[in-house]
Amino acid sequence: GAVVSQHPSRVICKSGTSVKIECRSLDFQATTMFWYRQFPKQSLMLMATSNEGSKATYEQGVEKDKFLINHASLTLSTLTVTSAHPEDSSFYICSARFHRTYEQYFGPGTRLTVT
Amino acid sequence: SQELEQSPQSLIVQEGKNLTINCTSSKTLYGLYWYKQKYGEGLIFLMMLQKGGEEKSHEKITAKLDEKKQQSSLHITASQPSHAGIYLCGADPHGGAQKLVFGQGTRLTINP
Questions:
Q1: Hey, are the CB atoms on B43 and A102 less than 8 Å from each other?
Q2: pLDDT digits over B71-83, tens only?
Q3: By the 8 A CB rule, do A35 and A22 touch?
């Protein structure tokens, strides 16, 4: 149980285009999901907290207009990187909080490369 | 803001040996999470510890939380190649299981 999936696992896009990443909790409902970014050989950096049915809460320094988050249902949150640039290339990981135990489960990540 | 310091940053051990990874917080730990990550992959949930000197074990991995010292340790007994990876501790800085802040990770290598 407690499986979180992400799609796609890898994506390459051109500068100026937008990319959508999906995060799904497969066997539990998650009122709260989190989006992280990880640079090579570094730890995770929280980007935003996604709450079902309400606006996401962004961390300081994260552009909300660039990283659009939508938590449309109790099992799905999406992150859209708008007008992507090469500096947006990174490993994006989502997590979902299991409401009963507060355990957080992570997806397998999405590697974004912007050319 | 809460900061987590992991030690050591990297560790190389012989297969079959025991090892310990530490995670020290600058502030009170309301919840401490341990994850394992392989490069380029997601995080695998290992254990979550809450206040009060809690200790949990799963297979050959034991994690302890010492609230007074604001520290948690992860101990692996009789290490195996499958234990290799990056171990991350994450903390819930405010309670209520919201966002997590992470340590910088410990890279574990197991030599056969």
A1: no
A2: 999 999 999 999 9
A3: no
